[in-house]
Amino acid sequence: MSLKLVILGVLDHKNVHPYDVKRFLKHYKWDYLFQISDAKIYYAFESLQKGGFVRVDQVVENEKTPTKTVYAITEKGRDQIKKELYKIFKKDVLSYKAIYPALLFVDYAEKDLLLSFLDERKEKVKKRARFKPRTSCRYRHEST
Fold first, then answer.
1. Highest mean pLDDT among 20-29, 66-75, 97-106, 112-121
2. Distance between CA 35 and CA 72 in Å, rounded?
3. Is residue 137 part of a domain?
4. Global pTM?
5. What Å distances lie between residue 54 and 42, 74, 85, 94, 118, CA to CA?
6. What sequence ranges are listed for the domain Transcription regulator PadR N-terminal (predicted)?
7. How far apart are CA 61 and CA 19, in angstroms?
């Protein structure tokens, strides 16, 4: 699953600080889907900002806490949500870890196209299952 997709999806609903994304993932109990560290989240925000997908909305300064940078999504970032979704659904991967969180953002994409990607995956799985060589049972009784 793309951490960038989650960040963009969250930002499309609310301007947030990177730590808020971590709280979002924990709230939905998705932190097990990613190896999430603060460094990864901050790096993803930095990468998205360099790509023009997010921008700094405001910098909140407070004497008692460190400076807090709040980000907002750009139009380019909204377009990227759809691209990230298509990338996840097109991948030839059987992992639920990629698909489950992406389902939260399917409203950003053309559902018929996503369904066609899933149908392609299903057919590939069927083919693999048909041609997978059977393994012999370890405990098979040998006749003498």
1. 66-75
2. 24
3. no
4. 0.76
5. 12, 5, 17, 30, 29
6. 7-82
7. 16
Rounded Cα distance, 137 and 99, in Å: 33
Whether 92 maps to a domain, the answer reads: yes
Backbone angles phi, psi at 51, to 5 degrees: -80, -5
| Residue 116: how many other CB atoms lie within 10 Å | 13
Decide if pLDDT at 112 tops 70.
yes
Domain count within the chain: 1
Q: Please give the share of the chain, as a percent, with pLDDT higher than 70.
A: 81
Spacing of C-alpha 2 from chain mean position: 3
> What CATH number has the domain bearing residue 95?
1.10.10.10
Q: Residues with Cβ < 8 Å from 127, sequence gap 6 or more?
A: none
Q: Is residue 122 part of a domain?
A: yes
Note down the domain range covering 26: 3-131
Residue 19: closest CA among 67, 64, 63, 52: 67
Query: Per the structure block, which two tokens stand in for 56?
Result: 């700094």
Whether residue 77 is contained in a domain is answered as yes
Q: Which residue type occupies 66? A: P
